[in-house]
Amino acid sequence: MPRRSVMLFAGACAAIAAALALTTVFVVTGRERAAETMITDAGTGQALVGGPFEMVDQTGKAVDQSLLDGKWSLVFFGFTYCPDFCPTTLAAIEATKARMGAKGDDIQVVFITVDPERDTPEALKAYLSSDGFPEGVVGLTGTAEQVAATARAYRAIYEKVGEGDAYTMNHSLTVYLMGPDGKFRSALAHDLGPERSAQLIERVMARG
């Protein structure tokens, strides 16, 4: 599958996050601490991540936020033409689940595209079946409006760069840990590493 170069725009992420009065950490190097801090409203203390959405999975089935009910889930945004961060994150999640043993078997992985123009259900299904990725990843796509609405709910940031077939997608890299009630629990940095990610998830799971 062809790959396109992707650029990070951490500065834009930080600026928008500050404007929204979010309390979070977007970690971009392994030397920094994990983003375990809740993404919250500074005034109410309520989590600002997650909420209703309507999309389509890789089988073409219409799904909504009830997809998260009853399961611990790792949710992140990306696209199938991503050359590095998306496949690296998926492989890291697979390694994280392996380190968690039986606990890892119960974690659902949800990959939400930011590129609905190219990422059809069929494209997602082919991509997510790649070797080295977690088994059973749920891929979500939809109309441009549905993708935008879901990204807003999760405070995910993305941007199309370029024209024609050569375009790529800038996007934020945070992985969201959602509880069995479908509510946000913690954020994981994309480069935290399997061992530390497993430890963080297990701590959060122990709190319920």
From TrEMBL:
Residues that, per the record, bind Cu cation: C82, C86, H171
All residue ranges annotated as the Thioredoxin domain in the record: 27-208
An example Gene Ontology molecular-function term: metal ion binding
rRNA-binding listed as a keyword: no
Keywords per UniProt: Copper, Disulfide bond, Metal-binding
Disulfide bonds: C82-C86
Pfam families named among the record's database cross-references: SCO1-SenC
Family affiliation: Belongs to the SCO1/2 family.
Protein name: Protein SCO1/2
Lineage: Bacteria, Pseudomonadati, Pseudomonadota, Alphaproteobacteria, Caulobacterales
